[in-house]
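Consider this pair:
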Amino acid sequence: MSLTTTPVPEAAGRAATARPGRLTIDAPVRAFHWLFALSFAGAWITAESERWRGVHVTLGYAFGGLLLFRLVYGLVGPRQARLALLWHRVSGLGDWLRNARAGQVDLPRAATLGMGAAMGLLVLVAAPLVLAGYAGYIEWLGLEDAWEEVHEFFANSAMALVVAHLALIVVLSVLRRRNLAAPMLTGRTPGAGPDLVKANRAWLAGLVVAAYLGFVGWQTLQGGTEGTSATQGERRDGHHRDHHHDDDD
């Protein structure tokens, strides 16, 4: 007589129990998100300072480079990183409005739609923000003041969208009783089920961070933007002096 025992996979059970949720956001998207936010915040803080103009320009270039990476990654990257998901997040607006008119107001759904709309608009605003800033910096067509006005308009629009995005995260976190900002740090969303992201691609995130830090560090050490800024400032001063000289004549 032999006894047959079936081993219980206790270790596997404990691992499944301790699993911190599903992987829903890969590392490159998270790296982009935080570097994008850091660049915008730094550029916003230094926007009105002549002393820090070089830093402002450097962060503006970095902001534009990150935007280009996200657009490319959103087109050829994995499904969960595709920009088309932004459209899917707001595609239910028509249904929500019809239900609202019928007296069925879904506040969490409204906040989710608002977050998707804010992110989509922010991506749309970022491109003209960078282009207008660059056009004003190189004084394209001699319309420096006009480009600066356009740049400021899109900067203020982007800041309004950022504030709306943050406010909606807080509101939705309260309504759903969980921290919705945490997945952008950890990549994981609480709950059972398979990972939506099959590959974390930490190596690509590392390349993005290294390229960002390398560019900002190189610009800081070279002082290239500050030198260009000073040269442009001298050229503008000379231009103003020529005008005054002509007036005196």
